[in-house]
Amino acid sequence: MTLFPDTVSAVLGESILGRAAKKGILDIRCVQIRDYTTNKQCQVDDYPYGGGFGCVLMAQPLKACLDDILATRGTGRSRVIYMSPQGPTFTQETAKRLVRDYDHLVLVCGHYEGIDERFISACVDEELSLGDFVLTGGEIAAMAVTDAVCRLVPGVLADPACYMGESHWDGLLEYPQYTRPETWEGQEVPEILRSGDHQAVERWRRKQSIARTMDKRPDLFEKWTPEGEDKALLQEILAERAPKEERLDFDIRPGTEADLPAIMDIVAGASAFLREQGVDQWQKGYPAAADYRRDMESGCCWVLTVERAVAGVMALCPGPESCYEKLDAWQFPGPYAVIHRIATRRDLRGRGLAKELFAFAGDIALGRGCGALRVDTHPDNRVMQGLIRKLGYVYRGDVYLESGTEAGTLRLAYEKSLLSGEGETI
Length: 426
Ligand SMILES: C[S@@+](CC[C@H](N)C(=O)[O-])C[C@H]1O[C@@H](n2cnc3c(N)ncnc32)[C@H](O)[C@@H]1O
What we know:
Elements: H1 5-12, H2 15-22, E1 45-46, E2 56-57, H3 59-71, E3 78-83, H4 92-101, E4 104-109, H5 117-123, E5 126-128, H6 139-150, H7 161-164, E6 183-184, E7 187-188, H8 198-216, H9 218-223, H10 229-241, E8 250-254, H11 260-276, H12 289-297, E9 301-306, E10 309-318, E11 336-344, H13 353-367, E12 372-377, H14 382-390, E13 394-400, E14 410-417
Parallel strand pairs: 3-4, 3-5, 11-12
Antiparallel strand pairs: 1-2, 6-7, 8-9, 9-10, 10-11, 12-14, 13-14
Helix pairs in contact: 3-5, 4-6, 8-10
C-alpha cells in the first residue's frame, strides 16, 4: 500500500523477483492508496490534531485500501505490516519468520508525518523498521523487506544453498568471494580456492566466516555460540592471533624407558583434548606405553624436551607401512618415513612444538635416504589436519588402520616431499 506504486513496481519487477513473478512463484502488487479516497480532491492526508509540521495520512483511505486487498487476496495466512521507524529492526530472522509463517504480506507505506494512529491500532499486526533513521516514506523499507523475504520463497533462487550459507543466516557473515581473473591489480585469489580440495575449501570458508564476523561485527560474534567443528576453528583463529610468546628453547633426542611416565601423561592430555573436541581418536587405550616401548627398541621414538622435561613425543618409522601401500594416490615413489603417535604437552599447546617435531622428522628422514614423509590423522581431527596442511602436507586419500585398538577405522593420509617444493609451508 503506497502513494508511489509505479516506482515500487519498477524496482520489484526487475531481475530475480521479476522473473519469479513471471513464473507465478510470487505475486507482488503495488496498490495506490489514493484510489480509495472518498473526497473529490482525492486527498489522502490532513493536518495533525494538536498542530505541528506536515500532514498525516488519513485512516479512511488506508482502511478502504486494506479491506479491498484482503477481500481479493484468496486463501492463506495474512499479515499486515506497517513500515515504521518505531518498529523493531527488520533482520534476516524476521525474513525467515515471515516466509515460514505467512503466505500473504501487506506492507503499508506511510508518508509525510506518518499515518493516523487509529489505523495502526485497528488494522496493523506488526510494525517493522529498516533501521534507526527516518525515511521520507515507507517505500524503500517495504522494497527491502519484500526483496529479503521473497528471495527465501522456495523456487525464487535456484537452490536453498544460495541463501543458506549467506551472511546472517546462522549468525555469521559470509566468507570472502572471488571470481576471475586469478590475479587482479597484483592481488591473487587465495591458493586454497584453486586447489580443488573441496573439504579444505569448505573449512577455509567457515574459518573466514568466523574470523570476519569477529572483526567486522563483534556485536554478532558475541551472540554466536560455536558448536562442533566451529570450536576447533575458533581455537585456531585465537591461537593464530595470540601475541606470539617467546620461542621456547628445546632439544630433541631419542626417547628412553625413563621418559615413559612423562610420555604417557602427554598422551593422556592429548586424548582428553580430542575427547573435548568430539574426536573419537586415542580414546581406546592407544597409544599405550607398549607402543612407545616398541618404538624405543626400534630406534623410532623421539622426545622433545623443554628445560630437560619431556614436552613432546613422536614415532618416526621407516616405510613401507602396510595400510599405506593399499593407496594408489601417493605422488613420491621411493623410500619414505611415517610419523606416528605425535603429541605435545597440553600446557605448551600453540607454542610451535609440534611444528618443530615435524621439521626434525623431515631432517632425520632425509638423512636416512627417504624422499617423503607420510602421516595420517582422524577425519574429525581438524586441528591436526590444519597443522599438517600448513606444514605443506597434501591429502592423498583415505586409509584404514590395520592393527591396535583402533584397527579398521578410517584415517586421512597426507604426504610431503622432502625433495620437491610441493605444498605451502608456514
Ligand atoms: C517521515 S516518516 C514519519 C516519521 C514519524 N513522524 C516518526 O517520527 O516516527 C514517513 C514514513 O516513512 C516511513 N519510514 C520512515 N522511516 C522508516 C524506517 N526507518 N523504517 C521503515 N519505515 C520508515 C514510515 O512509513 C513513515 O510513516
